[in-house]
Automatic annotation (TrEMBL), chain A:
Name the record gives this protein: Trafficking protein particle complex subunit 11 domain-containing protein
Compositionally biased spans, kind Low complexity: 340-358
Bilayer-crossing regions: none
Region annotation (Disordered) ranges: 331-358
Superkingdom, natural source: Eukaryota
TrEMBL record, chain B:
Family in the record: Belongs to the TRAPP small subunits family. BET3 subfamily.
Record's protein name: Trafficking protein particle complex subunit 6B
Gene Ontology cellular component terms for the protein in this record: cis-Golgi network; trans-Golgi network; TRAPP complex
Pfam families for the chain: TRAPP
Alphabetized InterPro entries for the sequence: NO_sig/Golgi_transp_ligand-bd (IPR024096), TRAPP_component (IPR007194), TRAPPC6/Trs33 (IPR037992)
CDD domains: TRAPPC6A_Trs33 (cd14944)
Automatic annotation (TrEMBL), chain C:
Record Gene3D superfamilies: 3.30.450.70
Pfam families the record matches: Sedlin_N
A GO CC term assigned to this protein in UniProt: cytoplasm
Protein family membership: Belongs to the TRAPP small subunits family. Sedlin subfamily.
Coiled-coil regions, chain positions: none
Protein's recorded name: Trafficking protein particle complex subunit 2-like protein
InterPro entries assigned: Longin-like_dom_sf, Sedlin, TRAPPC2L
Source superkingdom: Eukaryota
GO terms, biological process: endoplasmic reticulum to Golgi vesicle-mediated transport
Amino acid sequence: MELKSWIPERFTPVVMVVTTPEAEEMVQLNNGLTVVEMLRPHGVFHNLSVPVRTVGEQSYRIRELKLRLHYASSLFQPTPEAAEEYLQGVVKAATQGCESEPAPDIAACLRKGEPPGATPWFDTYQREFMRMLAFGELETFDHPVACLLVAHAGAEDPVQTFQALWAGAALPPLMRAGVMELRLLLHHLLLHDDSRHAEGGYQRAEEKLRVARAALGHAAVGLARVNSGSGDPASQVGYAADPGRWAAALAGAPRDGGAGELAARPAPPPGGLGARLTGANQEALAACLQDLAVRSLLPALEGRVRALNHQVTSTRRGLRNQLKTLLWRKASPAPGAQSGGRESPRPSSSGGSGSGAASVEGQMRALADLAFLMQDYETAASTLRLLAGDLRADKAWRQYAAAQEMLGLALVMLGAPPADAAAAFKEAFLRYSSAAAGPGRPGKDCVRLATRAALLTAAHARSHGNYGEANFALMKAHFPEEGLRAALLLEQAALCLLRVAPPALRKFAFHMVLAGLRYSSCGQSALGARAYRQVLGLYAGRQWAFIEEHLHSVLGARRKEAGDAAGALEHFAAMLVCPQSPRAWQATYLRQFLDTVAAAAAAQGESPVLDLPLPEVDAANVTVVCDDQVCHADGAARALPDEAWRRLEAPLLPGVEAGLPSWLDGGSSRSLAALPAACCVAGEALTVGVILTNPLALDLALSAVRLLYEHDCGEPDDAEAEEQTLSLAPGQRTTLQLVLRVRRAGALTLRGLEWTLNGHARGRRLFEPRRARGRRGRGLAKAPASGSLSFTVLAPAPCLQVALEALPGALLVGELAHARLVLTNAGPAPLRALRCTAAGPDLHLTPDVDGAAGRSATEVGAGLKGAGLGLGLLFSGGRAVYAWPPALELAPGARLEWPLWVHPRAAGALDVSLAFCYEPAQAAQEGMKYRLLRLRRVVDVAPALALTATLTPSVADLNQLLLRLDAEDLQGAGGLRMRQLSCTRPGWGVCSLQAAGSAPPAQETLKPGNSALQPAAPARASEALDAALGAGERAALFFRLHPPDAAAPRINGDAGAGGDAGGPPRLGLHHMYNVLPRGTEAVRAVAQSPARVLHDFGAHGACVAVLRLGLRSCLPERVTVTVSTGAGAETAAWRIREGGDAAAGAGAAPAPAASLDQAAGLRSGAEYVWVAATHTLLPDLAPGAAADVALQVAVFAPGMYEVGDYSIAWTRAGSGVAGGSCPGPSFLFSVEAV
Amino acid sequence: MPRQCSETCLELLALELVRAYGRQSRVPPAAAVDAIGFRTGRQLAERYTANRARLGEPLEVIKFVCKEFWMEVFRKQVDNLRTNHRGTFVLKDNTFRWLAKLSVDPAPPAGAAATRAVASVAELARDYLVLPCALVRGALAHLGVNAAVTAEAAVPPACEFTVTIKPR
Amino acid sequence: MIVCAAVIGQANNPLYLETFQQGSSDDALRFHYIVHCSLDAVEEKLALPRKSPGEPSDAYLGLLYPTEDYKVFGYVTNTRVKFILVVDEPVPKDEEMRMIFKRFHAAYVDAVCNPFYSVNTPLTSSSFDASVRTIIMTL
């Protein structure tokens, strides 16, 4: 509300209208307007130029003037109750549909720099509120300054009619009470009804006019003809027939009238308002009123102003003190004014101290107001200042406040510095509100007056851009007020806060919320909701959860009661996620939400699908698992990195042999390049993993959880999305795997997730694939670039499925397990050209099913075509590729079983991964030339038994070796049983030492002829044994190895071990390679002495014993061996000739010497003498050749002899240099006398 | 009586931190250490500014870091602060505590050894400067100065921290 | 006495808000509004230029604004964390308020330096709550 424009039209002279019933009837019946309403539009005069002179010497001109015309009977202030009721109605009317329109986005407005202006209804409210306060007893500017008597021109005697009319007029209460000036300027108006043709017509009316003028004065009477129109718009020539000009003239009235309006209005006629008023009529009316205004009213006012001014100045001169004033009050009545009229009753000083119309204060006030009406604001201001001073002096606070208020207005009009006006308004507000503390009616009124002052303050401050001020005033005003007005004030205050710099958004929000609270409490819940909606955006997303919750709940409730269940839902839905609130609230919110959903469903027939925040769906992080050209049997297969697989598959791929790029160049350019990045195959499952979280402390039941997708070929049955049902515990977070099957080729896009919460709330969430991860490295890894979850669905293709049956989860090292591969074609099309490759040497496909080669296909599998199942083994890309015969074809549903041997050699995890490659039997459709299947299983391998073998050359035999086998059961489970030991070196045989009579280890029992298992590698000889190993115990087994007649002993042993814990015995093999005899000798010598020699010493003193020495050359080349007796035998050491080789005599003399030192009765070695040849030469012995040497020694007494001092020397043939010598093994024999 | 902890423990901790994260491969080590430092820096800033008049513009914050913060964390004040008045500050600490005990075995050849050894100490220092940088950055950020902090120790234990304030 | 104490984070997000009068939950709600609203006052105060460039400005902001029946006091740390206390009659003296805020701040610092607390998240630590209660009970 702009004061400078509002004041001149509000503070204008009031003309009290009294009409005869005939006049009323005549106007109302035809035009639907009361006389006043008919006159009002013509009471406004622009472009006047009337010179007036009030108190000052110089005159000024009035250019604009407006008359406020009111019925005499309506010139009173309505009761507060009536006023309130009326105002409520006003607001209701003004705020029609304010709820439907969207609330302004405050933040956005501010960013644009244009905060939302004052709400439209507030201005209307403000004006109406001011109007309701008009005709108060504290101010006089609403008092009528003239009285217009309107009569029908048809009246017999106009003069008498007018006098009767004035005499019988229902005067306003204040006038009767004498507060209002009674001596009014009287003006008369005759209305001639053109529609009714009385005799004489208009001339007669003019007659009457003349008569009346003669009696009442020429200027005081006017005549106008009305109802000249025929009622149809055509007749309203001369003025634009705009109903607006009439509507402006109409004003609402409280219940039982007042505030210048009558309670009842005439019903509008069919022809519309003012139907029968022609332009001529209106001009006539306007002319009359202008007469009244210019010719009589203004001069009269001038006169009164001067008179009042004169009185005031005279009475005030020198009489400063209260006493005199009082005295004066008792004194004479005011001198009569010039206008005629009834005897004025003696004014009774009513309305509190110093407000009597005739008291000097009253007069000053009247003077000020009149001057104000006369637009002589100077006088008004100065008078008001004086008045205010006096009133302040005698503490008439209400009057004082009123004066201050008026002063403020005057100052505004004077364009005085805003601070002064503001100060005046504030003072007024202050005094009013302090007076408001007073008891009873006046107190209540003062509240309203205070509010009015505050409104003026605010308006004034606003017009000077001082919004902080305005906000402050309005805030203070709203405290004592209650109900609607308080709410409106708060709202205004809030709006002001948006315009202060910087905008106080939060305060604004707070005020708005309070306003909303008040609105809803006083039945204006539409406005309340609006207020809330405005601020919702200011709180949202700033973690002020409590507040958001509250706003949403209020708004939701509002929408719901407004019957807009769907609208309420979004608010209630927003409240659902409230982890911070206690469990009980969460439950309540959920319940209310579900109820509303039910309501909405009832309203709309089917329940709406909302973007539910419950449960939280991680839309950015969706994992899709599907098979395109590469299929994975299971997760284990996916776990292995793609590179590893590609390396494994490389040899399978067609074209690798043809020199196409292989995995060596990164496998990047595989023949898959033709295929789109993300594709899946029609009819095969597409598994989507979505992460759901339940943020609440309640259980959530989700049902009908399914994927939303788009598939370009429309039939609904082309794709089936499985529905799932689950329930989420409080705070639970799970990954949901949803399967989607598309039956027809085309393009598929995953849109989102849809579910039903707790039975009947249907919710959905669209995916936002920021980084949708395909679990298969390639394929989807490209998709996120495009950031979408769309796939190309390829035409149906054969799909091989392989099951790995009978493969134990755990194996022992060396165990030999027999598993079964079951190959099935799950696809709709037959497949062929089946190839397979396995990782690692521990896996082995037997070339034919237990010798099934040649067996017809049907015997090993169902639905196979093509005979001859022999498995082709070919090596490509450095791997063994098992290829089934190309003719072999797996029809859909066909099944093929194949054995697989698993033989882990090392402990740890054995990675059983197999890659299969196959091709569609039909000519390949676009893209899919072939498909791959990846199958992986991980078997953990436990160590079974630790075997160590030691080989020692046998002392007794030239050729044999002794094998000591130490076995330890690492398994601890026990029950391991050694079944067989076999030597894989051709020509060697194993036999137990038992045969040689050396005591076998206790726990071992030999069962001859038990041949449990033929080792893979051919062995000429193998020793069957059966040694059970207890838990974790060790066993040592001794064997003798028979050499073939061949070179130096180097053997590969291998032992079989198997636990026999029930069922079919599990068998295993242990291999030991390169078991070397400990120590090597160039020449092995074995003393073959006679055990005992009988000799008759009587007959012959010396007994010559012949000692046989067996020699065998162990060197690879031919050697010459010399046995020399006695020579240097004292030194039992051996000499290296120059260039001697380290191998020579590495093993010292055999052990027995040491053991026999303690033997009883041993004679010293000097008791014998070598006889016969001291040097025996064995010329070049062939490698491995054996020879026999006889040595002779002579002894002279019976006894036990050890003969050792002889040496064996050798030289390699050819080079005389390389060679060596060592002491020979000593002979032991006893000589007995006969 | 403020809680105290043995400085040795602190140093050992800092060392071990670098080693530990250097060993594990999941996260890039620098990032992990940086995260720790940033967080700690914020908390320290919270504590060290508790009984202190309000800091205003960035320069004051930087000064605070150079004086009090440095004192508290590195037991001395920054020796020299330079700025180009356009949001870049250079904090020079002539004997940066955390690098004092840093060294590498001198290489046998005498000639080029000196330079190479130092160069490699600087090399070594880089890893151990991640944490201090993050600390400073965190403190600044928590005090409302968003900046990038880098450190260069050409000749340890002398060390230069460069703070570049990010324009809003 | 103090009826409500709040800690507001750097982004003006509530870290801790507790009311200390036996009242219903909408009471708590009212305080949420009041505290949130008081942030404007805080920003106004912070926007004020210092009296003299050299002179350091105080963390204690004094009375932010009076509501119908409460007075709201503010305190801002160097790290732009705000402490808001809503007080009703009798209003303690300025010095008293200052002390209370200091202790409040100390408690906050201890809570924040807990390695298990992540910066700028709501303070759910019970020990912090306890210390706050003791602080305001001293009034």
